[in-house]
Amino acid sequence: MVVKYVAYTWQGQKIEGVLDVEGEDEAREMLQRDNLIPYSLSQVHQRRTLVQIMPALFPPTPKELIEFSRGMSSLLKSGIPMRDSLNLLRNQSSGLGLKEVLRQVIDDIESGTRFSEACEKHVSVFSGYYVRLLRVGESTGDMATTMLRLANALDKRKTMRDKVKAALIYPVISLVVAIVVAIILVTYSLPALIGLLTEYGGELPTNTKILIGISDFAEAYRNYIFLSMAVLAVAGWLFIRTKFGIRTRDRLLLMVPVVSGVTMRSNLFSLTATFGTLLEAGIPSIEALRLSSDGLNNVMLREQLDRVTAEAESGTRLGPAFQEHWPSPPLISQGIATGEAAGNLTHALSGLAEYYEQEAAKAVSTATELIQPAVILLVAGLVGFVGTAVISGIYSAISSIE
Fold this sequence. Notes:
- About 75% of the residues lie in helices and about 5% in strands.
- By secondary structure, it is mainly alpha-helical.
- The mean pLDDT is about 85.
């Protein structure tokens, strides 16, 4: 809090100023240490910032949450109290959203709220999986190990998602650049050249006529085309934020041949890694399975896992429940059934997580190798068509002059 003070020196000189302190008692102590006599103290009510009014505009990134978790583990392991550790990390954080969230968490802790309960109020930042592990750490008294476990689990999940995104960035950028170049050529550059070709008369090749027709259409309806593209982009963006749009998108991701392999394997890695981490922390299997849905980024697979959880809650063992509601790929149900029968499900899930991590990396590499040549061929075909149409038109115009 910010406190405005009025104090006097021992010689009777009046001094005014402000202090950033935890409370009025601390302000009085600071003034007395400076040989000042406090006369009046009043709290300064600061204006609320944009991040305080609309924190959803400044969401913490996964990297910031990982760094926070790892930093908390190191500070707690060093013997620094919880509140001091949170203050240190809040001051070091560069993310406005995380700073505000930590400020509210610190305020709640100071009022007597437990750390897990304070974090539970911020569901957009701390998932149910995260909060549940915090409760385990509070109950066991080993919060440093819990925070490190969370940091490692979130880091693995982020690494996998980054690999999937990296595989799609290059093809998407290449395709966008090709479309932009084609629009610029057809709309602005080609009309002048086409006017020159038609001026000399003669019979133009078919591909040149097609290019002229496209250019004339683009020139006549340019504004409508750009407006339609903008409307379609906005409509698509709004559609994939509806429940039906999300289901449609996620269903397609599981149907497209190359993309489905990446989607399934990356989600299976998240499921087995998260499920294993929760079981290792001592959380009951049904609750751990329910919390594991936080790691799935596909709504169709999340619903599939919900059916497995419901089956297990009715008394069915996990292995048969997965065989019934998650039959493909069969390795996931067989691995869980084997680990359950051997009484070492955590070890089985750890092995499955390592396997699917490698399989997801292979799937990403395969998708990259297949998508990139396809995009290159598409770009080359587009540029080649425009180039041959222009060149053949020029030769035809030269022949007519002769």
